[in-house]
Amino acid sequence: MLKVRDSNAGCLLPVRVHPGAKVDAITGEYDGMLKVSLSVPPVEGRANEALTACLAEALGVRRSQIVLISGASSRNKTVRIAGKSATDVLAALNHLLD
What is the pTM of this model? Predict the structure, then answer.
């Protein structure tokens, strides 16, 4: 089960990134985190930008609504999705993961 939680400015989503994959895709769940494969290498923040774009498209929000809170240089990251509750995000992600 994903460990998404509400915060003052939206919700916090833990993410596990797999950079250098063949395609950008949400691939499942890993230890309570959303698992996301990205086709770009983790160089100069390109993977973080690709993660933002991938999540924005999947959740139907603008890229500016997704902010990287922690893990800029790690595979384990936390992002804040502004304007969405944990319930909204879980519903959208469960639809993608089914």
Answer: 0.94
